[in-house]
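Help wanted!
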Amino acid sequence: MYKLWYWSAVQGRGEFVRLALEAGGIDYVDCAREQGDAALLADLNDRTGRTPFAPPYLEIDGLVIAQVANILQYLGEQHHLAPSGLADRLWLNQLQLTIADCVAEVHNVHHPVGTGAYYDEQRPEAARAAEQFRAERLPKFLGHFEDAATANDGEWLIDHRWTYADTSLFQLVAGLRYMFPKRMATLAPEYPGLMRIHAMVADLAGVRAYLASERRIRFNQDGIFRHYPELDAA
Amino acid sequence: MYKLWYWSAVQGRGEFVRLALEAGGIDYVDCAREQGDAALLADLNDRTGRTPFAPPYLEIDGLVIAQVANILQYLGEQHHLAPSGLADRLWLNQLQLTIADCVAEVHNVHHPVGTGAYYDEQRPEAARAAEQFRAERLPKFLGHFEDAATANDGEWLIDHRWTYADTSLFQLVAGLRYMFPKRMATLAPEYPGLMRIHAMVADLAGVRAYLASERRIRFNQDGIFRHYPELDAA
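Answered by r_m:
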């Protein structure tokens, strides 16, 4: 049984791991949701040797794996959530790392000058960062993922079944829609392939059950994707 | 023969790939340094299907691999620049991804509110970002890499030979020393293991020859690590 360690009150980066586990029907314990964030901090601080820099991390039989793309690559190999051919594996990891870059830039929108400070302490800077993100970076990322969604003959990113990068694209689109409802309403029609993958992932049996359950934490103002209306515009 | 595509006038993210290739004695053509950045842009724009989001990317026999950690993982497997055991591979990839996170935060210091704008257009914001990075994030990252450097019985990160994560740590330390000479002079003594790895990588035959050659571009004010004296402090 996998142990997943991630903050209990936000989707955050842990959600990319949760979604792959849920879509794949893989059993896991979401430790901090059962034991609290203090238990997560204690677990993290007690570790020595090969330690995670930050949550999320996944533990199984003494093996501890951190960094979302690293965890997903591992799960992909162990549970066939990814193809096994070299070129396909590289492409999928490449996409996941580009999703991670996009997520980091999203976080930077509301925390441009101080990861350790509150949003309220950096609102003017966040407004500037958001303007540029909406105008330039967001369409560039979405265009790239649209190209990826249409580079395959099938409906998914690779072949004819979902992979961990499909579930990650779902989460990225869902988060961006929550954070930038106006901007995404304008942009979404330009990316039909990406929106198709979002819809198909939402309709996977495991994901549908997960989204309807209490295990899915709602988007809120403490995660990576935050809805501050002043940072959004059509 | 590998083709490496990256901007010709900066070390940037391409340098992590260049260093692994040079340390490993692996032949490659640094395409944009021979043909210019216009050729890189043309190559990137002409691609269809599975395209890179951004340089660097590596091409061999029709296979195109982007994202630094992805490229290094590939080179590690193909050229034995990484151990083959599962736990070791995961640990190395995890470290490389944490190095990538640190590099992204370094870039964010001088471009906190506009990736597409100049530093001069965001100096007050950069000053704020730098202060927090120097005080909080930098020691946290360096402490993590120090733990990694001392988690192994040998002198390197894993076993008794260098890996691509060792060459990447070298570049991270070199870049941080260029960008924050005062701050790093204060901090460096606290991280002897990390500094040891930096020195040992610099002394590898392939790296020594590379650093003395014209192939090594000097640090400058267009790359990721930039020395703006106003952003540094002891």
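OP: Thanks! One thing I noticed: Chain B has two domains: 2-79, 86-231.
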